[in-house]
Amino acid sequence: MHKKEINLALIAAREGSKGVKNKNLLKIKNKSITRIATEVALRLKKIDRVILSSDSQKILNNVPQNKKLTKLKMKKKLAKDSTPMIPVMQDAIMKFENLFKSRYQVKNLIIIDPTSPLRNETDINKAIKLFDKKKPDLLISAHQAQHNPYFSIIEKKGKFFKLSKPLKNQPGSRQSAPISYEINTIVWIYSRKAVMKLAKRIPSKTIILETPKERSIDIDNQNDINLINFYLKKNGK
After folding, report:
1. pTM of the predicted model, to two decimals?
2. What count of other Cβ atoms lies within 10 Å of the Cβ of residue 214?
3. For residue 163, what are the contacts with CB-CB under 8 A and spacing of at least 6?
4. Residue 207 three-state SS
């Protein structure tokens, strides 16, 4: 039987979090951020199947069942603060393909992180369309960096501090420095090869989808939550 090549979305929501306790169960407008992310993925026609992966049964139970949704219990060793995302993605692909081995082959893996609840469906549809057109190993969402590493970010090197990204001809103003982008977590798309063979967080064939900074807030602390609530109130949502 011929296997259908699919776009598989992954919502990875571990139990532990340092900046905000029980972050993936945090509610925005009476829904947990994990449920918000999952429901966005489920609504999109360009996404064939959705995986919710968590080490917490409470998080898994927080999202209603859906015929398009597969819930996976994440191994505790994959839910540590120090665990890279690549093994989590590999685990999700392998488990999914084992469950549906006669039906599906993962073509692309679309990462929809719960911690960016201001994303909208247009962001993800644009990303998928651009990925299909350019055929990179990875597409990441990003917005222009407020603090340019060629001009305004320094780091310690030996006894002294120097620019993080020094240039031969150092720019005299922020406007003349090369444009830099800050990665956010609205949407990432990996090819199957990038996850299972290259196994690099940022492979060489990477492109970006530029997203508005206002929708790019990633929840890491209480200030981020306050900012998200401010934007929701501002936009009447």
Report:
1. 0.92
2. 12
3. 149, 150, 151, 153, 154, 170
4. strand
